Amino acid sequence: MSVYLYAISLLISLNAQHNLSVLSGAWLPFMLGSVVLNLYRHPGVDRYEAPPLILWLIAITASVFILAPVAGGANVGWALAAAPLVGLSIRRENIKGYSIASLAVIFLYACGLLAQVLIHFRYTRIWYDGVLGNMPAWPLLDPNNAACIVTIGLIPSFYMALRRPKWWIITGVLASALIFTESKAACGSAVIACGILAIDRLRISWSFVTLALGIVIIALFPLPIWDTMALSLGTRGEIWQSSARLLDIHPLTGTGLGTFPFYYAQVRTEHITGGWFAHNDLLQLAIEMGAPCVACLILLMISIVARTWSGNLVSGCVLLAVFIESMLEFQLYLPSVSLLLGVALAYHSVNHRPYSACETNVSRCA
Questions:
Q1: pTM (two decimals)
Q2: Burial of 337: CB neighbours in 10 Å, binned 0-12, 13-18, 19+
Q3: Which residues of the chain have pLDDT under 50?
Q4: 270-325 residue pLDDT tens
Q5: How far is 296 from 146, CA to CA, in rounded Å?
Q6: In 3D, which of 221, 287, 299, 210 has the Cα closest to residue 252?
């Protein structure tokens, strides 16, 4: 039952990118039901990441109710708290079900995105590069967010494809959906994550990889993609420079979760984005939650990195990809991403040996 509740919450959250959506809070009861059922039945997750995860939960709670409580802040707090709550509550024997549910939802989501592209139908209308247009982002409102969801499913399916050829079908569908989103950040993070898995799995020499990358970059250098990337990063640099000025308002307590758009409107110098996010989650969290709370998140990241070297490489690569994207977008603020990260955190905590994600029961469903 807990897996079904999780799947329902994930499906609903895919349609609730921000608090303006009519479904903005509809995912929460189902997620909490899943968590409560797991806790009631005595969770079996290894607790190596438990202390920093609990500390991060405390930091979120303090930011919402004590440090700088603001109207609507709790909505953002729940999105940030979803990952540690799901990650800490999943029992070892339930990881297979949660993983299958996650991949199934992501696969259906990718198929829906491909379908709308093939029939030239756009479910959403968004501001993108200053122009109101129809982008392949169904059903999320930003192509980068849609791409992040697909990337989370692509990484484990790619690793499974390295072991079992029939997984290439699923990997191909997810990769096609990712490409059609045209998200440079997501495509880049997916290449890095899948590259790490391929190098480790196939025992490829890092010197060979470095040489191959150099050749590819030189070959692709004349293409206009580099100009597009430079323009995109330039825009983010302008956003970050303006946002950084907000760090001095309340450096210890933060301005309050969800208040960034109000303060950013007073200092912004660009007007091609909606102005809702800093496009760098660590920066925005520091502005809204204060430096001490962000330090708790950094401690959690350090603990995960420390265990990735001897832990589960697949879930570690998922977390790495989302982190890279969150430094350019606002992935940590999305409930759907947090729910999926919770499953990745549980996998990361439970599995100690390399390739254990493909050696545990999850791989038997292939």
A1: 0.86
A2: buried
A3: 128-132, 136, 353-366
A4: 777 778 899 999 999 999 999 999 999 999 888 888 776 666 788 889 999 999 99
A5: 28
A6: 287
Predicted pLDDT of residue 364: 40
| Residue 70 vs residues 4, 15, 164, 258, 286: alpha-carbon distances, Å | 33, 24, 50, 8, 16
Measure CA 38 to chain center. Answer: 23
Alpha helices (runs of H) in the chain, residue ranges in sequence order: 2-13, 27-40, 50-62, 73-89, 95-118, 143-163, 167-181, 184-202, 206-220, 225-244, 260-264, 281-289, 291-308, 313-326, 335-350, 356-359
Separation between Cα atoms, residue 171 and residue 152, nearest integer Å: 11
Structure tokens at 249: 């308002």
Distance CA 284, CA 139 (A): 25
The pLDDT of residue 353 is 45
Number of independent structural domains in the chain: 1
Domain that holds residue 53: 2-365
Name the residue type at position 356: S
CA distance 11 to 48: 29
At 224 the three-state DSSP class reads: coil
d(CA 327, CA 298): 13
Total Cβ atoms within 10 A of residue 257: 28
